Amino acid sequence: MSDAFDTAWEIAKADTGMWDEIYAPLYDVFGGERGRNTDKHAFPLDFIQTKDVPLERHYGGKNAMALLPHHQGYVEDIMQDILEYGMMGRDSQWWHREGRKRKKDLTEGRIKFDENKAGLRNPGGVSIPMIGSTPDGWQINEGNHRVHALRRLNAPYIPAYSQATEYEKPKPFSPDLPMGAEMRRWTGNSQERPRDPYGFQSRLREGKFTIPPSFLFGRELVPGMGKLIPDLPDGLTASDMPLDEIRGLSKLRDWQDYPKWKKIDLDDKDY
Predict the structure, then answer these.
(1) What is the per-residue pLDDT across 200-215, written as a single tens digit (0 to 9) for each?
(2) How far is residue 161 from each of residues 10, 31, 45, measured CA to CA in Å?
(3) Integer distance in angstroms from the first to the last C-alpha of the chain?
(4) d(CA 138, CA 179)
(5) For the chain, which residues make up each domain, given as ranges?
(6) How much is the pTM?
Protein backbone atom coordinates (compact mmCIF):
# COMPACT_ATOMS: atom_id res chain seq x y z
CA MET A 1 0.00 0.00 0.00
CA SER A 2 1.10 3.57 -0.60
CA ASP A 3 2.66 5.91 1.94
CA ALA A 4 -0.40 8.15 1.56
CA PHE A 5 -2.64 5.23 2.51
CA ASP A 6 -0.48 4.35 5.50
CA THR A 7 -0.66 7.95 6.73
CA ALA A 8 -4.44 8.08 6.24
CA TRP A 9 -4.81 4.77 8.08
CA GLU A 10 -2.78 5.95 11.06
CA ILE A 11 -4.98 9.05 11.29
CA ALA A 12 -8.14 6.97 10.90
CA LYS A 13 -7.20 4.60 13.71
CA ALA A 14 -7.10 7.55 16.07
CA ASP A 15 -10.56 8.73 15.00
CA THR A 16 -13.17 6.93 17.10
CA GLY A 17 -16.01 8.22 14.90
CA MET A 18 -14.46 7.03 11.66
CA TRP A 19 -16.94 4.21 11.11
CA ASP A 20 -19.92 6.52 11.25
CA GLU A 21 -18.30 8.46 8.43
CA ILE A 22 -17.18 5.39 6.48
CA TYR A 23 -20.65 3.83 6.59
CA ALA A 24 -22.55 7.10 6.01
CA PRO A 25 -23.12 6.39 2.26
CA LEU A 26 -24.84 3.09 3.11
CA TYR A 27 -27.60 4.99 4.88
CA ASP A 28 -28.22 6.92 1.66
CA VAL A 29 -28.55 3.95 -0.69
CA PHE A 30 -30.20 1.26 1.47
CA GLY A 31 -33.64 1.08 3.04
CA GLY A 32 -35.32 -0.24 6.15
CA GLU A 33 -35.79 2.11 9.08
CA ARG A 34 -32.05 2.82 9.20
CA GLY A 35 -31.68 3.58 5.51
CA ARG A 36 -33.10 6.52 3.60
CA ASN A 37 -33.62 4.90 0.18
CA THR A 38 -37.39 4.92 -0.40
CA ASP A 39 -37.35 2.49 -3.35
CA LYS A 40 -39.87 -0.30 -2.64
CA HIS A 41 -37.22 -2.95 -3.23
CA ALA A 42 -34.38 -1.30 -1.32
CA PHE A 43 -32.52 -3.71 0.95
CA PRO A 44 -32.92 -3.08 4.69
CA LEU A 45 -29.62 -1.82 6.12
CA ASP A 46 -28.40 -3.95 8.99
CA PHE A 47 -25.09 -4.91 10.60
CA ILE A 48 -23.35 -7.76 12.39
CA GLN A 49 -20.34 -7.48 14.70
CA THR A 50 -17.07 -8.37 13.02
CA LYS A 51 -16.16 -10.66 15.90
CA ASP A 52 -19.19 -12.79 14.99
CA VAL A 53 -17.74 -13.38 11.51
CA PRO A 54 -14.51 -15.29 12.25
CA LEU A 55 -12.28 -16.64 9.50
CA GLU A 56 -14.04 -20.01 9.41
CA ARG A 57 -17.28 -18.25 8.42
CA HIS A 58 -15.84 -17.33 5.02
CA TYR A 59 -16.90 -19.28 1.97
CA GLY A 60 -14.20 -21.94 1.96
CA GLY A 61 -13.45 -21.48 5.64
CA LYS A 62 -9.89 -20.58 6.62
CA ASN A 63 -8.80 -21.55 3.10
CA ALA A 64 -11.10 -18.99 1.49
CA MET A 65 -9.64 -17.12 -1.49
CA ALA A 66 -10.09 -13.80 0.31
CA LEU A 67 -7.65 -15.00 2.98
CA LEU A 68 -4.91 -16.28 0.64
CA PRO A 69 -1.65 -14.31 0.48
CA HIS A 70 -1.86 -13.61 -3.25
CA HIS A 71 -5.33 -12.05 -2.78
CA GLN A 72 -4.18 -9.52 -0.18
CA GLY A 73 -3.23 -6.95 -2.81
CA TYR A 74 -6.87 -6.89 -3.93
CA VAL A 75 -8.04 -6.77 -0.31
CA GLU A 76 -5.74 -3.80 0.33
CA ASP A 77 -7.17 -2.03 -2.73
CA ILE A 78 -10.62 -2.42 -1.16
CA MET A 79 -9.28 -1.15 2.17
CA GLN A 80 -7.85 1.95 0.55
CA ASP A 81 -11.05 2.59 -1.40
CA ILE A 82 -13.14 2.31 1.79
CA LEU A 83 -10.92 4.74 3.67
CA GLU A 84 -10.78 7.27 0.86
CA TYR A 85 -14.40 7.28 -0.30
CA GLY A 86 -16.43 5.51 2.39
CA MET A 87 -18.13 2.17 1.85
CA MET A 88 -20.13 2.52 -1.36
CA GLY A 89 -19.47 6.26 -1.34
CA ARG A 90 -20.31 8.28 -4.45
CA ASP A 91 -16.77 8.04 -5.82
CA SER A 92 -15.97 4.56 -4.50
CA GLN A 93 -15.03 1.78 -6.88
CA TRP A 94 -18.38 0.04 -6.34
CA TRP A 95 -20.04 2.54 -8.67
CA HIS A 96 -17.09 2.92 -11.04
CA ARG A 97 -15.78 -0.61 -11.40
CA GLU A 98 -14.89 -2.42 -14.59
CA GLY A 99 -13.91 -5.85 -13.41
CA ARG A 100 -11.44 -5.14 -10.61
CA LYS A 101 -10.30 -1.90 -12.21
CA ARG A 102 -11.59 1.60 -11.62
CA LYS A 103 -13.12 3.54 -14.50
CA LYS A 104 -11.52 6.89 -15.24
CA ASP A 105 -14.81 8.56 -16.17
CA LEU A 106 -16.91 8.84 -12.99
CA THR A 107 -20.00 10.36 -14.61
CA GLU A 108 -22.05 7.17 -15.03
CA GLY A 109 -21.24 5.86 -11.56
CA ARG A 110 -22.12 9.14 -9.89
CA ILE A 111 -25.48 9.12 -11.65
CA LYS A 112 -26.14 5.59 -10.30
CA PHE A 113 -25.28 6.68 -6.76
CA ASP A 114 -27.49 9.78 -7.02
CA GLU A 115 -30.41 7.71 -8.34
CA ASN A 116 -30.07 5.31 -5.42
CA LYS A 117 -29.90 8.19 -2.97
CA ALA A 118 -33.03 9.68 -4.54
CA GLY A 119 -34.93 6.40 -4.14
CA LEU A 120 -35.21 5.82 -7.88
CA ARG A 121 -33.43 2.45 -7.75
CA ASN A 122 -31.55 0.20 -5.31
CA PRO A 123 -28.06 -1.33 -5.35
CA GLY A 124 -29.41 -4.88 -5.59
CA GLY A 125 -27.87 -8.18 -4.57
CA VAL A 126 -24.32 -8.71 -3.31
CA SER A 127 -23.81 -4.96 -2.95
CA ILE A 128 -22.98 -5.74 0.69
CA PRO A 129 -21.85 -9.10 2.12
CA MET A 130 -24.48 -11.85 2.00
CA ILE A 131 -24.94 -14.49 4.68
CA GLY A 132 -25.79 -17.94 3.33
CA SER A 133 -26.18 -21.39 4.80
CA THR A 134 -24.08 -24.51 5.13
CA PRO A 135 -25.35 -27.98 6.11
CA ASP A 136 -24.58 -27.25 9.76
CA GLY A 137 -24.57 -23.48 10.05
CA TRP A 138 -23.88 -20.36 8.04
CA GLN A 139 -21.17 -18.58 6.09
CA ILE A 140 -20.46 -15.47 4.03
CA ASN A 141 -21.57 -16.49 0.55
CA GLU A 142 -20.79 -13.20 -1.21
CA GLY A 143 -18.50 -10.31 -0.32
CA ASN A 144 -15.72 -12.31 1.30
CA HIS A 145 -12.98 -9.91 0.16
CA ARG A 146 -14.92 -6.94 1.52
CA VAL A 147 -15.48 -8.69 4.84
CA HIS A 148 -11.77 -9.39 5.17
CA ALA A 149 -10.90 -5.82 4.14
CA LEU A 150 -13.19 -4.50 6.89
CA ARG A 151 -11.70 -6.97 9.37
CA ARG A 152 -8.18 -5.80 8.53
CA LEU A 153 -9.35 -2.21 9.02
CA ASN A 154 -10.57 -3.20 12.51
CA ALA A 155 -14.19 -2.42 11.68
CA PRO A 156 -16.28 -3.11 14.81
CA TYR A 157 -19.25 -4.23 12.70
CA ILE A 158 -20.00 -4.86 9.04
CA PRO A 159 -23.09 -4.45 6.84
CA ALA A 160 -24.78 -7.67 5.74
CA TYR A 161 -28.02 -9.26 4.60
CA SER A 162 -29.35 -12.76 4.01
CA GLN A 163 -31.72 -14.65 1.74
CA ALA A 164 -33.45 -17.75 3.09
CA THR A 165 -32.81 -19.93 0.07
CA GLU A 166 -31.17 -23.00 1.61
CA TYR A 167 -31.98 -23.04 5.31
CA GLU A 168 -33.37 -26.58 5.30
CA LYS A 169 -31.79 -28.56 8.13
CA PRO A 170 -29.46 -26.50 10.31
CA LYS A 171 -30.48 -27.29 13.87
CA PRO A 172 -29.52 -25.36 15.93
CA PHE A 173 -28.07 -23.52 12.90
CA SER A 174 -24.91 -22.65 14.81
CA PRO A 175 -24.37 -23.04 18.55
CA ASP A 176 -22.70 -19.65 18.95
CA LEU A 177 -25.33 -17.68 17.01
CA PRO A 178 -28.54 -19.71 16.55
CA MET A 179 -31.32 -18.79 14.18
CA GLY A 180 -34.09 -16.69 15.75
CA ALA A 181 -37.40 -18.31 16.65
CA GLU A 182 -39.47 -16.46 14.06
CA MET A 183 -36.96 -17.18 11.32
CA ARG A 184 -37.01 -20.85 12.30
CA ARG A 185 -40.79 -20.78 11.97
CA TRP A 186 -40.64 -18.99 8.63
CA THR A 187 -38.17 -21.44 7.13
CA GLY A 188 -39.77 -24.52 8.63
CA ASN A 189 -36.86 -25.40 10.90
CA SER A 190 -39.14 -25.39 13.95
CA GLN A 191 -41.59 -27.94 12.57
CA GLU A 192 -42.03 -30.76 10.09
CA ARG A 193 -44.70 -29.85 7.56
CA PRO A 194 -45.13 -29.79 3.78
CA ARG A 195 -44.80 -26.41 2.11
CA ASP A 196 -47.53 -24.79 0.05
CA PRO A 197 -45.84 -24.26 -3.35
CA TYR A 198 -47.66 -20.92 -3.66
CA GLY A 199 -47.21 -19.83 -0.06
CA PHE A 200 -44.98 -17.40 1.76
CA GLN A 201 -42.56 -20.11 2.87
CA SER A 202 -41.92 -21.22 -0.70
CA ARG A 203 -41.36 -17.64 -1.86
CA LEU A 204 -38.97 -17.19 1.05
CA ARG A 205 -36.99 -20.26 -0.01
CA GLU A 206 -36.85 -18.94 -3.57
CA GLY A 207 -34.91 -15.91 -2.37
CA LYS A 208 -37.76 -13.43 -2.85
CA PHE A 209 -37.03 -11.65 0.44
CA THR A 210 -34.01 -9.85 1.81
CA ILE A 211 -33.58 -10.73 5.48
CA PRO A 212 -31.71 -8.47 7.94
CA PRO A 213 -29.18 -10.37 10.09
CA SER A 214 -30.78 -9.18 13.33
CA PHE A 215 -34.05 -10.86 12.28
CA LEU A 216 -32.23 -13.92 10.96
CA PHE A 217 -30.59 -14.42 14.35
CA GLY A 218 -33.51 -12.97 16.35
CA ARG A 219 -31.50 -10.55 18.47
CA GLU A 220 -29.68 -7.25 18.64
CA LEU A 221 -26.35 -8.00 17.02
CA VAL A 222 -24.58 -4.66 17.49
CA PRO A 223 -24.97 -3.09 20.95
CA GLY A 224 -27.20 -0.04 20.81
CA MET A 225 -28.45 -0.65 17.25
CA GLY A 226 -31.57 -2.62 18.14
CA LYS A 227 -32.93 -5.20 15.75
CA LEU A 228 -35.09 -5.13 12.66
CA ILE A 229 -38.48 -6.82 12.52
CA PRO A 230 -41.24 -6.79 9.88
CA ASP A 231 -43.15 -3.51 9.87
CA LEU A 232 -46.71 -4.83 9.80
CA PRO A 233 -50.00 -2.96 10.29
CA ASP A 234 -52.55 -3.19 13.10
CA GLY A 235 -50.20 -4.66 15.67
CA LEU A 236 -49.48 -7.77 13.61
CA THR A 237 -46.10 -9.46 14.13
CA ALA A 238 -43.90 -11.94 12.30
CA SER A 239 -45.67 -14.77 14.15
CA ASP A 240 -48.93 -13.79 12.40
CA MET A 241 -47.46 -14.37 8.93
CA PRO A 242 -49.23 -17.38 7.35
CA LEU A 243 -46.77 -19.84 5.87
CA ASP A 244 -49.20 -20.96 3.19
CA GLU A 245 -50.79 -18.90 0.43
CA ILE A 246 -52.45 -15.77 1.80
CA ARG A 247 -56.16 -15.54 1.10
CA GLY A 248 -58.07 -12.52 2.34
CA LEU A 249 -55.22 -11.07 4.40
CA SER A 250 -54.40 -8.21 2.06
CA LYS A 251 -52.30 -6.32 4.60
CA LEU A 252 -49.95 -9.25 4.99
CA ARG A 253 -49.92 -9.76 1.24
CA ASP A 254 -48.86 -6.14 0.85
CA TRP A 255 -45.85 -6.83 3.08
CA GLN A 256 -44.95 -9.88 1.02
CA ASP A 257 -45.03 -7.78 -2.16
CA TYR A 258 -43.04 -4.90 -0.68
CA PRO A 259 -41.42 -5.90 2.63
CA LYS A 260 -40.85 -3.12 5.15
CA TRP A 261 -38.77 -3.34 8.30
CA LYS A 262 -38.71 -1.33 11.50
CA LYS A 263 -36.19 -1.12 14.32
CA ILE A 264 -36.99 -2.05 17.90
CA ASP A 265 -34.76 -1.48 20.89
CA LEU A 266 -34.80 -4.56 23.09
CA ASP A 267 -32.36 -6.88 24.81
CA ASP A 268 -30.61 -9.72 23.03
CA LYS A 269 -33.23 -12.35 23.81
CA ASP A 270 -34.96 -14.29 21.07
CA TYR A 271 -38.47 -13.23 20.05
Answers:
(1) 877 787 777 899 999 9
(2) 30, 12, 8
(3) 45
(4) 10
(5) 3-264
(6) 0.87
